[in-house]
Amino acid sequence: MCGLIGGADDLVHFSCTMDTTEFRRRGKEMVDLIADYLENIEQRTVYPDVEPGYLRSLIPEEAPEDPDTYEDVVKDIERVIMPGVTHWHSPYFYAYFPTANSFPAMLADMLSGAIGCIGFSWAASPACTELETVMMDWLGKMLKLPEDFIAGTHGQGGGVIQGTASEATLVALLAARCRAVRMILASDPQRPETGITSKLVAYSSDQAHCSVERAGMIAGVRMKKIPTDQSDKYAVQGETLRRMIQEDKAAGLIPFYFCATLGTTPSCAFDHITELGPICNAEKIWMHIDAAYAGSSFICPEFRPLLNGIEFADSFNFNAHKWLLVNFDCSTMWVKKRSDLIGAFKMDPLYLKHDHQESGMITDYRHWQIPLGRRFRSLKMWFVFRMYGLKGLQDYIRKHVELAKEFESLVRADQRFEISADVVLGLVCFRLKGSNEVNETLLKRINNGRKIHLVPCLLSGQFVLRFALCARTTESRHIREAWRLITQLAEEVMQELPH
Ligand SMILES: Cc1ncc(COP(=O)(O)O)c(C=O)c1O
After folding, report:
1. How many angstroms separate the alpha carbon of residue 165 from the centre of ligand 1?
2. Which residues, by range, are in coiled-coil regions (predicted)?
């Protein structure tokens, strides 16, 4: 509530003072607004019809001098914001990979916002740190991670919540760089450090997410892409990595980091970590596993074999905020040896010191990440894990996989289309048999229609449409409706273009 003070002649505006009484009322209204939005989301056009810069003309050039009312702000949500929203939680959204959305996580985020602590050290808010360590252990146990990755009370390893998979990849790369330099200096103390870093070489698949290549750019190290092909289902083969390492060593380079992907972004391919891991271990190369999307599925026993070989990894990460019903941001990362991370990033200015930090009993998560500040993100894991239970989470993953299989059957039953990669989880890569031009035109028509939303990928030079199961509320009827639209547009395109 915003108000005025003073008598009739000397009215003085003062700033917004939404008090607790007002907050209770508005908070309940906001919950209703959110529930209405999500309940009716499928009636909205999934992809917005706006031009770049659309928003600037809808709001003033400057922030208001005097306070607006809450009603004014709420009114502008439909006028200003919603026209430019891509509705990621519409059951007609099939682009990218999912981003999680559940009621327990949203409520936990409200509480996190209210507590509003910045948990960079144990002392900065003990519950923030301790719940995170235990939640990472809970999740690690759901995934049946090797004991080495579980913190427990005396473990050498453990988990941390990063903001994104990109950060996890970078943090692992920086820790690996530090470990490699220290190992070389230990045996050759006279060698100049710059002479070592300029020779370092890291590897990832040519199917890896671009954030991996970017991590190499940020860290200032060579990043080589390992070629994959269709005959190997776009997975990195042990033999290819071994050959590249030998060639690079012969050329005087120092291999130090390999980022394997489980569930690549284009086609959800899985690198052969049971072959790759022993090679990395023998060469003292840090193996990081990026399973940003697929990682959530490993809580199901039938998908857990995809993670076999994890025992060879130094670090492992996936986005619980993608497919595990924990809203963004919650990128869960485990390391076997926490000292590898802490040793790489430790800074201890006086103003951050506290009584317990040398006790060996506590974790100061600021040493595990790039920023200092961190939100109380484990609350949303706690709410979600308790309110869904492992069984509820497994059922959710299985439902998406079943829907993907249903969509795959629809595609396979139509002779005009082909499936472009194995459907293992909730992603179906498909295309019209024919030219890239036909497929590009089809995708453009689909997205211009704005009823469903998909994005493409390139596999072996072919333009492919990706159909990713995303929303929590997607049902069989949505899949069938999407397929009806796709085939109707395909018919139009095929009549117009040679294929
Ligand atoms: C395999 C993979 N790695 C990394 C990323 C990047 O994720 P983030 O936005 O969390 O950095 C993605 C995004 O979809 C991905 O699919």
Report:
1. 5
2. none
